[in-house]
Design brief:
Blueprint: H1 3-25, E1 37-42, E2 45-52, H2 55-60, E3 72-82, E4 85-86, E5 95-100, E6 106-112, E7 120-121, E8 126-133, H3 136-139, E9 148-149
Parallel strand pairs: 2-3
Antiparallel strand pairs: 1-2, 1-9, 3-8, 4-7, 5-6, 5-8
Length: 158
């Protein structure tokens, strides 16, 4: 992770922390409504992805979820191209994350364990990250270089 991308990560993290802290301090828990979904295609497999395109939705991610459907996932849309990183704090289920460049090509995939604060970073400048159940990519022989279809319909990150 480069210092510049770490600064972006820290900015987004602390903005979301302040947002959630304010909600807790005022006794109001910010209820995030259902996220929009997008159908993506990965090597012929349809994926129903919830879209996390804001700082708040990216920060919450799949935290506190007890399950994820077989072909369901979450697409993180970043506001800037960078060496983004993910972690699993407060995440209950094992996940795999694919970091994806601006052209929709998978850069790398990392398997992640629940409740871990270890970071998993993109190996190149990423615009997106797609989280799926652990092993999902491996079971379908999907790896770096695979093109994800449908990303052109994703909203811009903000």
């Amino acid at each position: 992770m480069t210092p510049l991308s770490f600064r972006r990560f820290a900015r987004d993290f602390f903005a979301a922390l302040a947002f959630s802290g304010l909600a807790l301090a005022t006794g109001q828990v910010a209820a995030q409504g259902p996220l929009p979904t997008l159908t993506l295609t990965v090597e012929g497999h349809a994926v129903k992805a919830e879209v996390a395109a804001t700082v708040e939705s990216r920060t919450k991610g799949l935290m506190h979820r007890e399950k994820l459907g077989k072909n369901d996932g979450m697409l993180f849309v970043f506001d800037e191209l960078g060496y983004h990183a993910m972690w699993m704090k407060n995440t209950l289920i094992p996940l795999a994350v694919a970091f994806i460049d601006e052209q929709g090509k998978i850069l790398n995939i990392a398997e992640m364990q629940p409740h871990s604060e270890s970071t998993h970073a993109a190996t190149g400048p990423a615009r997106y990250a797609l989280e799926m159940n652990a092993g999902w990519f491996k079971e379908r022989n999907v790896g770096p270089g695979t093109k994800i279809k449908g990303l052109d319909k994703a909203p811009k990150g903000r």
